[in-house]
Amino acid sequence: MHWVNLNEQAVYANRWFRVNLADVVLPDGRHLDHFVIRLRPVAAATVVNEANEVLLLWRHRFITDSWGWELAAGVVEDGEEVAVAAAREMEEETGWRPGELSPLMTVEPANGLTDARHHLFWAREATYTGPPADGFESSRREWIPLKLVPDMIARGEVPAANMA
């Protein structure tokens, strides 16, 4: 069943996102007004070290008023390579500069509402460069044994696990 987007009109825009109203034709010919959120790409990164531990951030998200473990992530700046953005975000948010990054996956976590593409990377090593420049992003940064992560996800301790 193919939906056709005839056009979109901007409702709101800022440097982070745009909200558009789309005129969509459904397969049966009816028209539907559908809000669409257009976002810049997001890059995320982590490291799995020699001890088979993964670097995660413990943070509060005020929108959902929830705490959870996350990967360091942020918006890809205009003209920036996605992997470069992932490395930059990881160092800014954790104080660890990743070694060579490998792509893990690209996901669209809410493609019924937004065009956000989240590009996830990982590295086998990282160098500690000092306290994170964006320390306000998380309450703590920890190396978590990778074998514990599936149970953490099952317990809801990694709320964005649908993304990672």
Description:
The relative contact order is 0.20. The model has no long low-confidence stretch (mean pLDDT 94). The radius of gyration is 18 Å and the shape is elongated. It folds into two domains: 4-38; 40-154, Alpha-Beta Complex (Nucleoside Triphosphate Pyrophosphohydrolase), CATH 3.90.79. The strands form four sheets. The chain has a four-stranded mixed sheet with strand order 7-4-10-9. It has a three-stranded antiparallel sheet with strand order 1-2-3, with no helix packed on it. It has two helices and twelve strands; from the N terminus they run E-E-E-E-E-E-E-H-E-E-E-E-E-H. It is mostly beta strands. Helix content is 12%, strand content 46%.
Strand and helix layout:
Elements: E1 4-13, E2 17-25, E3 31-39, E4 42-47, E5 53-61, E6 66-70, E7 72-75, H1 82-94, E8 96-98, E9 102-107, E10 118-123, E11 126-128, E12 140-145, H2 149-154
Parallel strand pairs: 4-10
Antiparallel strand pairs: 1-2, 2-3, 4-7, 5-6, 5-12, 8-11, 9-10
